[in-house]
Design brief:
- The protein is an alpha+beta fold and 401 residues long.
- The chain has helices at residues 8-13, 17-41, 50-58, 77-90, 92-97, 99-102, 112-123, 253-281, 293-321, 327-352, 363-373, 380-392, and strands spanning 129-132, 148-152, 155-166, 173-180, 191-197, 207-211, 222-233, 283-284, 287-288.
- It has three domains: 2-123, Butyryl-Coa Dehydrogenase, subunit A, domain 1 (Orthogonal Bundle); 129-233, Butyryl-CoA Dehydrogenase, subunit A, domain 2 (Beta Barrel), CATH 2.40.110; 248-400, Butyryl-CoA Dehydrogenase, subunit A, domain 3.
- The chain is built from twelve helices and nine strands.
Length: 401
């Protein structure tokens, strides 16, 4: 569908020539490289090929948010999400893997030039991270983690279980959220995130695990991990001395949630574009089903929802790149886009009819993956809670909710 979705308002207000060039580069890459791979490998639950990751690295997709002086492009949340939407139109896992550079460069272990070299490699997709935050009994409330770390000389020793660690095997290091043994205080005050380096294709020494059986989000594996006396150097990581643009202060959970909104929009757009093409080619009662008012109105509504989410995302990205915290707006776009994506992909499947309920068309992939966007990076319910707290103030008795 492509340019048919690009309104004059969007182009005039947000999409500069440089951004249009970047978007079109990503769009062509998806059509030529990502979609053929996704259509072939997703049905068999195959991994994203290393060659595809290398091509993305060469295009700079892993370093969009990484400052130029550290080897990245030094751009903002807007460009990051612009590319993510395009990549998700092909395969959400491909849109997600770029966060393993853009969202992890501040946590790269080491010091001095060695660390800077790793970050420069990260910007090219050659040194990537993973995060082990959640646990079997701990999800949204990370203050309750039980995985423990104790300091022994120049090392940390980690013991405990982690859940939902995507890319644990393919990454170069895993950030493990632990509670510090013997630390004073409770909750986040007693926690530390420890980078554990490892060879690609393997888990760290002293760590065992198994992939979690998922219904979607294929292209890479998500792991349950068990750390048993896993050792990692006690890096006294130095602050990154870079000339931070306005987006620097926003890098973190907020950008991650807007990135999820971008992925949601990409999934919905992919389903919409495929449904439009199918409706034009599917003949029933002697005419294309795109001639029937029920189908036309359904597609018109779907397109409206996609564009509404995109415009909200553009606004929130602009706010973040201007240095505004936009706490409520971040949750609004994550919530709205995720809910929209589930609805639009489901409607697209309906347009396909019985064909949509097969693996012969990628619509079911968009549908399965869209369902996840309502869960990860903070559930829809968490986003509603944040929005309500900003609008109304926190409840007088939070524990009663």
């Amino acid at each position: 569908m492509g340019d048919a979705m690009d309104t004059g308002l969007a182009t005039n207000r947000y999409l500069t020539p440089e951004r249009l060039m970047m978007r079109d580069l990503a769009r062509s890459f998806v059509q030529d490289e990502v979609l053929p791979v996704a259509n072939r490998l997703d049905p068999e639950k195959g991994d994203i090929p290393v060659e595809l990751i290398e091509k993305m690295g060469d295009l700079g997709f892993f370093g969009i948010l990484i400052p130029q002086e550290l080897g990245g492009l030094g751009l903002g949340c807007f460009e990051y999400c612009l590319v993510a939407e395009e990549l998700a139109r092909g395969w959400m896992s491909v849109a997600s893997i770029i966060a393993r550079g853009n969202g992890f460069y501040r946590s790269v272990p080491g010091r001095g030039q060695e660390r800077r070299d790793k970050i420069a490699a990260m910007a090219k997709g050659r040194y990537l991270g993973a995060a082990a935050l959640s646990e079997p009994g701990t999800g949204s409330d990370l203050s309750g983690v039980s995985c423990r770390a104790r300091r022994e000389g120049d090392e940390w020793v980690i013991n405990g279980n982690k859940y939902w660690c995507t890319f644990a095997d393919g990454s170069d290091f895993i950030n493990v959220l632990c509670v510090i043994e013997g630390a004073q205080g409770t909750g986040r005050k007693s926690q530390v995130r420890l980078p554990v380096e490892k060879p690609r294709g393997r888990l760290p020494e002293g760590c065992t695990g198994s992939p979690i059986p998922k219904i979607g989000y294929f292209g890479w594996r998500t792991w349950e991990l068990h750390f048993e006396n896993t050792r990692t150097p006690a890096y006294e990581t130095e602050p990154l001395e870079v000339r931070g643009g306005p987006h620097e202060a926003a890098v973190g959970l907020g950008v991650a949630r807007v990135h999820t909104a971008a992925r949601s929009i990409g999934l919905a757009r992919g389903a919409l574009e495929d449904a439009m093409a199918y409706a034009k080619s599917r003949i029933q009662f002697g005419q294309p089903i795109s001639d029937f008012q029920a189908i036309r109105f359904k597609l018109a509504t779907m397109a409206t929802k996609v564009e509404a989410a995109r415009q909200l995302m553009y606004h929130v990205c602009t706010e973040l790149d201007s240095g505004n915290p936009a706490r409520a707006e971040i949750s609004m776009v994550k919530y709205f886009a995720a809910e929209m994506a589930e609805r639009v992909t489901s409607d697209a499947l309906q347009v396909f009819g019985g064909a949509g309920y097969t693996t012969l068309f990628p619509t079911e992939r968009y549908w399965r993956d869209a369902r996840l966007t309502k869960i990860f990076e903070g559930t829809s319910e968490i986003q509603q809670r944040i929005i309500a707290d900003v609008l109304l103030g926190k409840p007088t008795q939070r524990g009663s909710n």
